[in-house]
Amino acid sequence: MGFRLKVTGGKDIEMNEGILTAVNFISETPENANARSTDLGVILRIAGRINFSLGAELEDATVELANWALMPSDQANCYRNVQIQVVSGGQIVRQYTYPNAFVMDYMEDLNDEEGVGTWTLLLKQKKDLTDKIELKGNFEA
Amino acid sequence: MALAFSTADPAITLEEESTKKIIFRVEIPQDSRARTKDVGVTLTVIGKIMADTASAGTAADSTAKLMEWSVVPSEKKEAYRSITLKVKSGGIVTRQYEMPNAFIVDYSENFDNADGIGEFVLKLQQMKNKLADVKVTGGFSE
């Protein structure tokens, strides 16, 4: 099962199955609600490797993830369009598109044992625009 | 992969043998409805505390300077320092983190009678509202 990521609306970011290792789609409402709540948040958690491009054959796009995470809230491109595809057996099993995603948490983890680093990105669609997200599944690649 | 940590004014340069793991994190409150101004940038550095063998001609150990920094009171200018962390891999600086107004949130040193060396955990944060000065770059030669 492979993952493909496309981020547009700032400096474009593209990543494929060589970099991405895990994707979680989370839709949540307050746990203490008496009935179905209107306070719906949609979250995307993406994890991957920092492979470090040495000869620059492939630009290391993870630096741009760090720069996006550091972007102040008064700038327009702190909200970006994010699309994740989960690909398996010639099929797009899932395609999540968040047109106004912002970074809630970004973490880079590096150590002297593994040779490559890892990162985790937690995104949320801007809450008043939650109905703008597009969720699709099971179509031909 | 080697991790080179240094601060300026006053300067601390840790030996590359001393650092073993880092975690760089940018976060905002997770219950926020949109992107907020309340951004925290933290850098955690985990490393080894070894005996200083500079007199024998091998690597020194500068971790004691971190210990001294961790008890500097907030009234003093030295509580805030400019820090740089370089991640080196294959002759290239693959990541460089710069936090010009970093302060220590937490610092601990742990020793036991089995390991032979000690371990330190240093948690740094960039002064809040000075987020724009944090720089993450990478992919250039040393």
Structure description:
- The complex is a heterodimer of chains A (141) and B (142).
- Chain A has 141 residues and is mainly beta.
- In chain A, 6% of the residues lie in helices and 53% in strands.
- Chain A is built from one helix and eight strands; from the N terminus they run ββββαββββ.
- Chain A has one helix at residues 62-69, and strands spanning 2-8, 13-15, 20-28, 41-50, 80-88, 91-111, 117-125, 134-140.
- In chain A, strands 1, 2, 3, 4, 5, 6, 7 and 8 form an eight-stranded antiparallel β-sheet that branches.
- In chain A, a hairpin with a 4-residue loop joins strand 1 and strand 2 (13-15).
- Chain A is globular, with a radius of gyration of 16 Å.
- The model of chain A has no long low-confidence stretch (mean pLDDT 90).
- Chain B has 142 residues and is mainly beta.
- Chain B contains one helix and nine strands.
- In chain B, strands 1, 2, 3, 4, 5, 6, 7, 8 and 9 form a nine-stranded antiparallel β-sheet that branches.
- Chain B is globular and about 55 Å long.
- Chain B starts with a strand and ends with a strand.
- In chain B, 25% of the residues are buried.
- The model of chain B has no long low-confidence stretch (mean pLDDT 90).
- At the A-B interface, helix 1, strand 6 and strand 7 of A face strand 3 and strand 6 of B.
| Residues in helices of chain B, as a percent range | under 10%
Work out the strand percent of chain A. over 45%
The shape of chain B is globular
SS element count, helices of chain A: 1
What is the count of β-strands of chain B? 9
- Quote the average pLDDT of chain B: 90
Taking the sheet with the most strands of chain A, its summary is: 8 strands, antiparallel
